[in-house]
Every structure is written in C-alpha cells, then in structure tokens.
Amino acid sequence: MSVLVIAELDSHGIKAATRSAVTAASQFGEEVHLLLAGNDVAGIATQASAINGLNKILLVDATEYAHGIAENLTPLLVQLAPSYSAIVAAATSFGKNLLPRAAALLDVAMVSEVIQIIDATTFVRPMYAGNLNATVKAPAGLRILTIRPTVFEAAAATGGSAVVETIAASGDAGQAAWVSRDLVQLDRPELATARVVISGGRSLGSAEGFKATLTPLADVLGAAIGATRAAVDAGMAPNDSQVGQTGTVVAPELYIAFGVSGAAQHVGGIKDSKVIVAVNHDADAPIFQVADYGLVADLFTVIPELTAALKG
Ligand code: FAD
To answer: What pTM was computed for the model?
Structure first.
C-alpha cells in the first residue's frame, strides 16, 4: 500500500505546506504518491515530480478542479481511497475543508492537526487549545489525517524523480461553482510562513493605533503582523491576521507579542515558535510563562525605541 498526499496549489505552483505533508507521509515507511488535481496544471507536474520523497504523481487536469473546490475534489478522493493506506494533507484551510468531507463519506475517523507520527496508526495531536497533546490510535484500515505544517520540515523541492501518471477526472459534482476571489495584496511576508512575526493585542487601542504602532517595526524586521482575537473582534486588525487556536498557527524563528495577555487560545497558536518575546506592562500576564524573553514595560514606549534602535 501507499500513502496519498493532496497537493495544495497557489499561483506559484505547489505550496510549501504540501511539502511538509510529504515529509509526514514519508514517515509511514510506504510509497508516497501526490494527487495533483487542478485546471491547466500539467506544467506543475514537473515541479511536483522533483519534490524529494515522492514516488508517483497522480495528475488530473480538468476544469472542475480549478480553484480547489472541495465539493469536486471529494468524489475523486473517495474513488482513489481504496488503493491507499492513508491520505494526508496539510492542516490549512484547504486541507481542513477537504479531508473531513472524504472521511465522512468513507466512514473513517479523521485525525486532525497531527504534530507527530509515532507509527502508521499512532499519532500525536494537540487538544484543548494546545494545553495537552493526545496520543491517538487510528483503527486499522484507511487513515485520513491533516498534519500541522509548521512542525514537519518541508521536503526538498528538488532532488526527486517521481513518475507522473495521468488519471481520469471524476466530473463536476454540481454542488458548488466558482464565482470570484477577493485577494488581499500582501506587502509583507505571509503570516503562516514568516520568519519573524510581531503581534499586537487589544491594548493597541484602535485600528489606526494598531497600524501606526506596529507597521514601522514590522518594516524594519521584515516581519508579518499578527493580532489577538480580541484585537480582531474590536476591528483593529483584519480577520486573517488572527493568530491562535481559531486563527493561524505560526512557528516563526522569532515571535514578539506586544500587549498580548497570553490566553490559552492565543498561546496554542504560537508555542512552536523558536523564540518568543513578550512585552507587557503587567508582570503577572500569562504570556510571560511561555516567553523566552520578557520585558515588563509599556508597549507604546518600547516599540518606537526598538524601531529606532534597529534602524540606527
Ligand atoms: P486582553 O486579554 O485584554 O489583554 C491585553 C493585555 O495587554 C493585558 O495583558 C495587558 O496587561 C496588556 N497591556 C495593556 N496595555 C498595555 C501597554 N500599554 N503596554 C503593554 N501591555 C499592555 N484569542 C486569540 O488571540 N487567538 C485565537 O485564536 C483565539 N481563539 C479563541 C477561541 C475561543 C473558543 C475563545 C473562547 C477565545 C479565543 N480567543 C482567541 C480569545 C482569548 O481567549 C483572549 O480573549 C484573547 O487572546 C485576548 O486578547 P488580548 O491579549 O489582546 O486582550
């Protein structure tokens, strides 16, 4: 048997998170295949076959797979599933949308957000906003899992030589149609993959204050800007900047939290960061329990000073 990884695509081709899923899939000790489904994706097959650790690319090129519509991809997965011992995707919005649908139709217990593969049926996944890690055993037979891309190093984009096999499309399920996409134009690194993330809490006070205070520092550091849910709910920061259990899980080399209390739901999304720095004027703020470096100070004093020092 083999393990099937589902490729997630963007305008550059295969996303890095998919290569993390390849690394995870390799740990089953079986052949690893990649499902490359999309519209006009034949060119991406070359990129896919170069990914280290893959044995085969299943290429399916059809209009119904444009834009990664889960309603159309699910029947394809259900069709392919009997040939595989496991199906793996990254726990991104795409993977979290697609795999539970296939798991339900196949009557398989889904294992979500896996952070460690102990053996082919035993996995570790966080629970209760990351407050504990559960070791779960999947029943024998098909396993369907999403893996947390921040904890599995992405497989090398080069060095592989997987064979490419073209397979038949499963057709349009007729349940959803693509209308349009409103793309946020990012002028800084993407939150999920940034090497440095700086985050602000509701203590920033307003949308204007949030932007004016954090942007100059983010510019100097080349950092992505994150926010707590309280800041997002208060309209200070956009939804897609929310970091945490119900936002983006990040694992940058450096995470700096300004005026963030350190609620479990926030900490659950940052604790794989290599270095966590917290600035909070309350010495008892819970964020200091997870911080590698803490500064008890007013953020409105620290941020301009830090920005000026880094510029100088
Ligand atoms: P607060 O808790 O109000 O903390 C503000 C902090 O700023 C305080 O520690 C204060 O001492 C400090 N401060 C104030 N002024 C200054 C200053 N001038 N200088 C320095 N420090 C200052 N939250 C998330 O972030 N992400 C999630 O994904 C998430 N998911 C959730 C899911 C559920 C189901 C629930 C119930 C909650 C979730 N939350 C999430 C909300 C979470 O519980 C907290 O309410 C939220 O993280 C708190 O945000 P905050 O730290 O900005 O605000």
So the answer is: 0.81
Q: What backbone torsions phi and psi does residue 114 show, to the nearest 5 degrees?
A: -65, 135
The pLDDT assigned to 12 comes to 86
**Alpha-carbon gap, residue 286 to 121, rounded angstroms:** 36
Three-state DSSP at 168 gives coil
Structure token digits, residue 22? 């390849």
ipTM of the complex in this document: 0.99
Digit-coded pLDDT (tens) for 93-117: 899 999 999 999 999 999 999 999 9
What pLDDT digit, counting tens, does each position of 140-165 carry?
Answer: 899 999 999 989 999 999 999 999 99
Could you tell me the two tokens for 220? 């100097």
Q: Is the CB of 267 under 6 A from ligand 1?
A: no
The Å distance, Cα 97 to ligand 1 centre, comes to 27
Looking from the CA of residue 247, the nearest atom of ligand 1 is 28
**Ligand 1 atom 36: residue of nearest CA:** 265
Evaluate: CB of 285 within 6 angstroms of ligand 1. yes
Whole-angstrom Cα distance, residue 173 to residue 70? 10
Residue 112 in contact with ligand 1 by CB distance below 6 A: no
